[in-house]
Amino acid sequence: MLTSYASHFDTPAGYLDFARFGPPSRDAVTATARALEASAHADHTTVDTLMRAEETARDTAARLAGTDARHTVLLPNASTGLFHAALGVREGVVLAPRTDFPANHYPWRRSADLGRATPRWLDPAPGSGVTPDLVRAALTDDVVAVSVSAVDFRTGFRADLAALREAIGPDRLLIVDAIQAFGVAALPWDAADVVVAGGQKWLRAGWSTGFATLSDRALQSLEPVLTGWTGVEDVGLFDGAEHPPAPDARRWSITNLSPVTAAAFAAALELVERHTVTAIEAAIAVRIAELTETVEAYGGRVLSPTDPARCAGILSFTLPAHDPSLVAKALQAEGVTPTVRTDSLRLSPHASTPPEAAERVGAALSSLGD
After folding, report:
1. pLDDT (tens digit per residue) in 228-256
2. In principle, which of 89, 172, 199, 275 could form an S-S bond with 205, CB 3.0–4.6 Å?
């Protein structure tokens, strides 16, 4: 376990649902409380002072994504970024996986409704995800972009972003939903033209936090349909005229975000940067290996890729002859929190998860018998 990182959290040992929600650190909680306290005693300096947290969070997110502030904008969630991207595509076909989380479906459906981008759904093999071969087979001259999840929410399948970039060539956009990967998987984010992520899962920043990065290609080709008053040039000039969109990623800003959530986001990102994504990823891989061994020892059928290089942070499984809801009750009785699906269960540990978690899972599965 990454002890220095784990010391910042009070999460129960059996909490294995980070792919759904990541309980924030004491750092993020303290930053939230301080920002709220300051806002309760406001004077002429309060708002400007609190707003500096947004700049801090943006700069840290940019560094972690391998880019700079000009190409980065804070957003309240990943879905907002995906809608910006989808409505920004003027025309053409966008490839997206049918098996992806619905947040990566509806923006493209709404874009098609408006006569802009048309989605063409990809069908990855069971237990897999979007691969370069799958994309190459679907490429036609009218394909202008590919939209994928960096890590599949069902199985933890890790997309090969560099290979996908090579497959689609330099002229098409690669749009990546990074919510299940950013901060815990060292991926080549610079291979993507758009990276969007929410902070409430693996980044452990709480709800209403997130960001997007845009490449120069994305800034040039995506129309800023949803630009708001904070995303334009001369943002402080209230002259009744329409101002042109900002030349950088700020054009995806609709309005001011909460400086309170920005403070929490800044604290969470700083913790990741300080302890490094590489170290966090390695600690999670150890926990996944332990949980996989435990699940298989009790007859579980693992649905996630077994190669660590192709999987990140998520272990999905079934226990033959046992309904997932009953398995979930056994896990919960041992203090384990899984994600429960109608056909499977998902375990997603973090770098703060202790070895005790696998022991609890083993005790729960053992109690079910044959």
Report:
1. 999 999 999 999 999 999 999 999 999 99
2. 199
Arithmetic mean of pLDDT, 254-269: 98
Task: Identify which of 359, 363, 191, 195 has the alpha carbon closest to the alpha carbon of residue 287.
Answer: 359
Task: Look at residue 4 and give its three-state secondary structure.
Answer: helix
Residue whose C-alpha is closest to residue 187's, from 355, 22, 65: 65
**181: closest CA among 164, 210, 203, 165?**
203
Alpha-carbon 204 to chain mean position: 11
Largest CA distance in the chain: 73
Q: Helix H segments across the chain?
A: 3-6, 26-40, 46-64, 78-88, 106-113, 132-138, 161-168, 216-221, 259-275, 277-297, 324-333, 356-368
The answer to whether 316 and 324 have CB atoms below 8 angstroms apart is no
Residue 307 has a pLDDT of 86
Query: Burial letters for 289-323: b for 16+ Cβ neighbours within 10 Å, e otherwise?
Result: ebbbebbeebebebbbbeeeebbbbbbbbbbeebe
Question: Residue 177 forms beta bridges with which residues?
Answer: 149, 196
Q: Give backbone dihedrals phi and psi of 369, rounded to 5 degrees, phi first.
A: 70, -165
Hey, what are 5's tokens? 């990182």
Summarised one tens digit per residue, pLDDT across range 136-160 is 999 999 999 999 999 999 999 999 9
Give the list of residues 6+ apart from residue 274 with CB closer than 8 angstroms, or none: none
Strand partners, 302: 317
Q: Angle at the Cα of 35 (from 32 to 38), degrees rounded to 5? A: 150
CA angle in degrees (0–180, nearest 5) for 183-185-187: 105
Instruction: Report how far residue 345's alpha carbon sits from residue 325's, in angstroms, rounded to the nearest whole number.
Output: 9
